[in-house]
Structure formats: structure tokens, C-alpha cells
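S1.2 Input.
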Amino acid sequence: MPALWPWRARPVSSPAARRIIRLNNGFQLLFNLLWWMPVFYAYQRDAGLSDSQIFGIQSIYYIAFCLFEIPTGVVADRIGALNCLRAGAVVMTAANMAPVLAPSYTGFLVHFLAIAAGRSLTSGAASAYLYDGLRAEGADAHYLRAEGTARSLGLAAKVICWPLVGPLMALAPQTPYVLSAASAAGSLGCALALPRLAPRGGSTGPGGPGRRDGTLLRDTGAALRALRTSPWLPLLMLQGVAVFTLSRICQVNLFQPVLLEHGIGESTHGTVLAAMTVAEAVASARPQWLSRRVSPAVWVSVLSVALAAALAGTVLGGPWLVVGLLCAFAAITGFVYPVQRKLVNDAIPANAPRATLLSVESIVDRGVCALAAVAAGAYLAAGRLDALLWQSAAVTCVLIPVLHLALHRLGLRRADEARPAQADQPVALPVDEGVAPHP
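S1.3 Output.
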């Protein structure tokens, strides 16, 4: 099997693979370019919504996101990941126009429910399409860099575009939502230009390329069987929970409280967030900088602990150290995200419903994030921010080594089972070599 990443990646030789990478970059950048993100709270307040209504909509949004994940993942495996990307772009375009057409509580509720539906349609399908598309062209060794580059370009676009939101709103308050809808429409253009993939375990009949035979219930059952017969797959998913939970809680819930705790005023928060985004964008584009002497699964574990340590370290430092640690936190997030996605994709059996399984992982991530957000709110209300940071680091440092030990033992057991049938061939271990073998 090829290494997870080479020191110097060879150029992509297949024109089709290059086209997939370019269009995926465009899709990810435009689909996730939400111009209204820095101002949506103020926009809703100006529209007459109260704080309870605004945060109530946010709660409904997160619940809806979790509820939409499984059915949309199954739909992606049923109708094809590419069709799901196109449907998600259509929904996202309409969602961003809802506040323009109806700037009311109902309009904003419809807006966020549609955002949840659109993002759910693409969350598993996008990664599944890129992975399967590059593998079909014999360019699967480039998946890691392609995943990281797409994320990096999306982050860079936010750094460039978000500072323009204030001046644009001075011209027309609805501009951020109109531009977000235009960006989503551009992502639809990229999705329409993406090539269709050969069927994977499906037919070439009326269902069309990339679709699977069978019913939705059968696809769900296939996903559950894959989790049961590939025990390292759910463990790899759980390993990534620490990364996504710490990243989301820091950047969404704890970012401003940590800065305010150290006397960093609100006027500089945008600059700090921009610096963090740049750090994450650079690291996301260069996961191959990580040494090959350490296996990818070990890197995910080590970097997860480093995330917790960086966040806990903000308790001890002054303003400049806090900003530096937050930027280091963002860079670590950028490094670890594409590596973890590659590990999970490699662990999914070839004929399993990939988008459904990736949606399962997304549900676990968001479920844990929801619980962590509730806990963070309780700690902040009690004035115990320092305790929250220390305890989060302690829990991460205990759970991650346990998960990694379980992964290592499963890898050794799998190797022992495979050795009699392949006595004359070296056996690749799922953890020590960084790639989980397909059953």
C-alpha cells in the first residue's frame, strides 16, 4: 500500500484527477464562504429578534443538523455523492436568500434549517466523492493534500472576504446574504462540472453512475455491519472526536471569553481570529510537513493532546502568550484534520456506504460538541473558565492514549489473523503503518 503521504508528492498525472481536485477546491471554497457569519447576530437584532429568539434558533439549528445527518448520508449513497453535492448547493443558495426575502423570526428559522439541510447533504458526500474520485483515477495518494488544500483555500477566502463585510453592509444591509447566495450558486456550477464516477457496488441502469443498488434500509444496515466488522473504524472516529470538539468549542464558544479574561478588548478580536485562520489555512495546506517516522494514527493522538495542552496553557500566560497559543491551536487543527479524514476513509471497506459512515462520524462529533457546549456554558456562568480548560486537557490526555492503545491492539490482532494466509508477505498494521487494511 502507498504511504499516507510522501515527502515530495509527484504531480497528478491523470487529467481527470486534476479536474476533480480543482473543482473540489472551488466547490469547498464557495459552498462554505458565508459572508454573513461575522454579522448575523447584529443583523438579526436589527431585524427585531430578541436574544432568546436568536439563541433559540441556534439550538434548533444544531438539533436539526444531527437529525439530518444520517438520512442525508444514506441518500448520498443511494443517489450518488455527486447528485448530493448538487442538491446541497441548491438548498444552500435558497437558504442564504431566505433572510433577504423574509427578515423575520420565521425567515431566519427557515434560513438556518435550510443551512443545516444543505450542509448535511454535503458533509459526508464531499469527502466520499473526492476519495472515490481520486482512487478511481489511481491518484488516491494525493487525497491527503487535496483535502488539506481545499480546507486551506476556504479559510484563506474567509480571511480576505470577512473584513469587507462592514463596508459592504454600509452600502446595503442585505449584501452579506446576497453574496453568500451567489457563492453557493457558484459552488453549484462547480458541482455540475464535476465528472460522474463509475458505479461502486451499484448498477449502471436507471440509477445512473455512482448510485447503489438496494433500499435506504439496506444501505443503513450495510453501514452498521461495516462498523461491527471493522472495529478499528469506530475507534478512529472516536479518536477524531477530541480534535473536532476542542476545535469547535475553542473557536466558537471559548474564543472571546478567553481573550476577555486576559484583558484583550473586543476591538482586537477580529485581528486575532484572522491570525488564527491564517495559521490554520497554512497548516491545512501542508500536512505532509509531518514526519513520516511517526505513523498518522500516532500523529492524530499526539496532536489531539497538543490541542488540549495549548488551550489549557492560556490559563497561565499573558495577552501575547494567549494569542500565540491560540494561533498554535489553530495550526495544530489545520495539520490534524486532513490526516484524520484520510485515516477514517482508508478504514472504510471498499463497498461500504462511505457517505453514510462519514455522516455517522459527523453525528458523533456534533453530539459531543453539543454536550461540551452545555458544559462550557455552565462553567462560564459559574466563573470557572480556568477549571474548564484544565479539566478538558486532563480528560483528553486520559482518553486519547486509551483509544490509541485499543487501536494498536486491534492492529496487532488483525495482523495475526492475516499472517497464516499471507505467510510469505509482510503485513501492514492499521496503526503502526498508518493505514487500516480493508477486509
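S1.4 Remarks. DSSP finds 16 helices and no strands in the chain.
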